[in-house]
Amino acid sequence: MRLTKALYAGAFALALLSTASAQSLTIATVNNGDMIRMQKLTSDFTKANPGIKLNWVTLEENVLRQKVTTDIATKAGQYDIITIGTYEVPIWAKKGWLVPLDNLGADYDVNDLLPAIRSGLSYNNKLYAAPFYGESSMVMYRTDLMKKAGLTMPKSPTWAFIAKAAAKMNDPKNGVYGICLRGKAGWGENMAFLTTLANSYGARWFNMKWKPLFDGPEWKNAINYYVNLMKADGPPGASANGFNANLTLFNAGKCGMWIDATVAAGFVTDPKKSKVADKVGFALAPNAGLGKNANWLWSWALGIPAASKHVAAAEKFIAWATSKHYTELVASKEGWARVPPGTRTSLYKNPAYLKAAPFAQMTLDSIDSADPSMNGTVKKKPYIGVQFAAIPEFEGLGDTVGQYFSGALAGKMTVDAALKQAQDYTTRVMTKAGYIK
Prior knowledge:
The structure is a single chain. Helices cover about 45% and strands about 10% of the residues. By secondary structure, the chain is of the alpha+beta class. It has two domains: about 1-135 and about 300-355, D-Maltodextrin-Binding Protein, domain 2; about 135-295 and about 370-430, D-Maltodextrin-Binding Protein, domain 2. Strand 4 (about 120-125) and strand 5 (about 125) form a beta hairpin.
């Protein structure tokens, strides 16, 4: 009897110890398709790591950015893993807000990460976030509608060609619109697209003395092109459409063309998700004949806030989610064309992937051609970044300017009025911050 009680007591003590040693990771992520798929596959991780429990906070892109930024800046410690990108990582690492990823495991192969993607997620040559997927932007178009219009998409189209093709493919009576583009306000939503559009027109956010340039002809030409194109050949309510809304429209067969993130290619060619999966072609993001294409450079990545109390467990999860093993797991479940793209050199040397993904080379070419350096625009700029300026003030600037341009698209103000507000607001912010003397 005493032995039995002792055994029960020992078992109870072990249970308590096990419960106490179990760690719970709270992961904040964006509601994009690849991240949602990752959540469905995490039993592979938890089986190998039974002492780690995962709690998910899945948010719309703008909301995620707001909540994560507030949490990490205040050191609240609400999240153990956060989904961030190439804009935040170097800035936050410099402030000491992120943990360097020094312990991803001997088999992680950090040198396999694409150089452009790894560089954007590093500070002082240390990796501070691991890429879940990497992307640039490109044209996705309906091959059947292009043929019907009597046109052939060039590998590197001009904006003039895009406007011509959109007009010919536009058929609103039958629910097909010539082109779908982002209109939803946000530095990572409409301003990601509009900044690259403006880059190709020769625009910059700032000159070399940090003076805003929205009062110049380059921005005016770019935004007038965008608003006129969307009003003529875009879907109704476009000022509310971000990445996910346009993906839904394209997959439903309602867009002749869509210029957006290369990561979308895996979804628009998926017959389980797209009605037009077998009718999609790809081209480089357009240009205005000035030598620069309108493509961006981005990675959604996983990082650890300095306030996390579970750093070792968080690194284990990040190593799993961004590993070659995870890529192979997705391939085994859903096929090679569905794996997260744009992060590893080895993926673009994998014959199985190259055969399954007709967009693979175009994605790699787009990533490689994006130039975040100061020489990445037609005229030199004082900041790093393609679709953003890598300064702490840009998040607020991009959100506000994005509202002005979204308002112009919605017809709430003229393009000239939106540009004037953008110029005045940005000048005030940059002057107050000390950039403009």
